[in-house]
Design brief:
By secondary structure, the protein is an alpha/beta fold. It has helices at about 15-25, 45-55, 75-100, 130-145, 165-175, 190-205, 225-235, 265-270, 280-290; strands spanning about 5-10, 30-35, 60-65, 100-105, 150-155, 155-160, 180, 185, 190, 210-215, 225, 240-245. About 45% of the residues are buried. It binds NADP nicotinamide-adenine-dinucleotide phosphate.
Length: about 290
């Protein structure tokens, strides 16, 4: 691509969007970066999507906006579908019409979680809840649109910005003498800053415009359970909180979680040279960043 890339980031106040904004301000480049939050474009207003994008004329759109309330989605599936599916259709169709590339983020929740080896992008999907289903429909509509661009599935995202498991563990670990955490769900935590860096690499990669709805996986490398992750957080921060492992059945949630959601991330390395850092190394860096806040 030329040096004239105009990159529009949607959902710039979420975990991933905030990290892109942070990195872009740390390392300004010659590209034009535009950051929109909900008040700039509300994705529940499907008609506004075409109008706003047509006025903006981006070269690349990175969609970090989503309905991400996994449990609440069981009560409001229409809203989840509106934002994660119908809005993505409008985004994809408009990008296609404008000749813009779309980078869209999806989730490990499109899988059933019954595998015992890392999920590859082409593996069969079977979401267990409305959030996963809405995200899967978003993927499908993007691919059907023929837009140039990619879907990047990720998992277990945490960040300095927003609310997430890591920040909850820091808060609870400091406040409580003991805590029980689920130990039979296995996945790969992902520092949103690493994912943001990867998405920024993709956005300016010359091969992006040759991809049409290809699916990639990106999570930090290595695997752990939520219990392992909490244990590493407590150890790194010297938190004197007694941690006990429990089974999923002992911590019921409205939406079912996948037992196993490790993603095979080889394809994003093969096609774009993006290699995710090891989760524990990223966690140490993220904890320093969160503490410095
Ligand atoms: N978090 C995870 O563990 C995880 C795991 C796998 C995949 N993902 C995927 O990764 C992507 C980014 O996730 P995240 O953790 O960064 O999410 P997040 O922190 O919840 O941010 C989502 C953003 O979407 C915006 N948004 C929600 N509804 C909107 C609407 N109607 N119009 C415009 N903007 C709207 C929110 O705006 P407000 O700030 O105004 O609310 C928020 O800034 C999503 O596609 C998600 O599905 C996340």
């Amino acid at each position: 691509m030329s040096s004239e890339i105009r990159i529009l980031v949607l959902g710039c106040n979420g975990q991933v969007g905030s990290e892109i904004k942070y990195l872009q301000r740390q390392q300004p480049d010659h590209n034009e970066w535009i950051f929109w939050q909900r008040s700039d474009l509300d994705l529940t207003d499907t008609d506004a999507i075409e109008t706003a994008l047509t006025q903006c004329r981006p070269t690349v759109v990175i969609n970090c906006a989503a309905y991400t309330a996994v449990d609440k989605a069981e009560q409001e599936p229409e809203l989840a579908d509106q934002i994660n599916h119908l809005a993505v259709r409008a985004l994809a169709q408009t990008c296609q019409a404008l000749g813009a590339c779309l980078i869209h983020i999806s989730t490990d929740y499109v899988f059933s979680g019954t595998h015992c080896q890392p999920y590859r992008p082409q593996d069969a999907t079977a979401p267990a809840g409305h959030y996963g289903l809405s995200k899967l429909r978003g993927e499908q509509t993007l691919r059907a649109s023929g837009v140039n661009g990619v879907i990047v599935r990720t998992s277990w995202v945490y960040s300095t910005f927003g609310n997430n498991f890591v920040k909850t563990m820091l808060r609870l670990g400091a406040a409580k003498p003991a805590l029980q955490v689920v130990a039979d769900q296995i996945g790969s935590p992902t520092w949103a800053r690493d994912l943001a860096q990867a998405l920024m690499q993709l956005a300016i990669h010359p091969d992006l415009a040759q991809k049409t709805g290809e699916i990639y996986h990106y999570s930090n490398s290595g695997v752990c359970s939520w219990y392992d992750l909490a244990a590493h957080i407590f150890q790194a921060q010297n938190l004197d909180c007694q941690l006990s492992p429990i089974r999923t059945e002992e911590y019921p949630t409205p939406a079912k979680r996948p037992y196993y959601s490790v993603l095979d991330c080889r394809k994003i390395y093969e096609d774009f040279g993006v290699r995710p850092p090891y989760w524990h190394h990223s966690l140490v860096r993220a904890l320093k960043d969160i503490q410095a806040q």
